[in-house]
Amino acid sequence: MTKNELLAMPASSYMNKDQRIFFASLVGQLVEAIRARIEAKKPELERVESFSDPTDTATLEELRQRVAVEIQRDTQRIKALQETARRIAHDDLFGFCEVSGSEIGLARMLLLPEARLSVEEQERQERLARHQLQRIS
Predict the structure, then answer these.
(1) Cα-Cα-Cα-Cα dihedral of 68, 71, 75, 78, to 10°?
(2) Comparing 3-7, 12-16, 17-21, 45-49, which segment has the lowest mean pLDDT?
(3) pLDDT (tens digit, 9 = 90+) per residue, 31-47?
């Protein structure tokens, strides 16, 4: 099934067996792509160079730190995607908001298959967090 075929399915087909198979495959592809990206970044961390100019040394260290943060972020996303794969296989609530129970939506799931909240709920929680931060400030 392609993304276009998925999106063309009737609303009554939301998260049926075929859609769940599609998302399981998508998650697997994403995990593999992220793992490949991590492997491609590792040489940047392992690169050993000696510079006489401290600015060059600092620039290299800054690059290493940025790459390390990217690898850490990618590793966290892999864990979230692995949890998503488990949910697809064993949880009938995959694709539904954990708070409201409403459909998260195919378009959002295509962009972020590990999403656990609907757009509306995500925005509500972000507004609440901003409001709490403003009260603290």
Answers:
(1) 170
(2) 45-49
(3) 999 999 999 998 887 77
**96: which strand partners?**
103
Instruction: Give residue-wise pLDDT tens across range 76-133.
Output: 999 999 999 999 999 889 999 999 999 999 999 999 999 999 999 999 999 999 988 8
3-state secondary structure of 20: helix
Please classify residue 39 by burial: count the beta carbons closer than 10 Å to its beta carbon, then call 0-12 exposed, 13-18 middle and 19+ buried: exposed
Instruction: Answer yes or no: are the C-beta atoms of 37 and 98 closer than 8 Å.
Output: no
| Helix, coil or strand: residue 121 | helix
| Predicted pLDDT at 92 | 85
Contact between 23 and 88 under an 8 Å Cβ cutoff? The reply is yes
Q: Report phi then psi at 51, rounded to 5.
A: -115, 145
CB contact burial 73-99 (16+ within 10 A = b; e otherwise): ebeeebebbeebbebbeeeeebbbbee
| Helices 54-90 & 17-46 angle (0-180, nearest 10) | 160
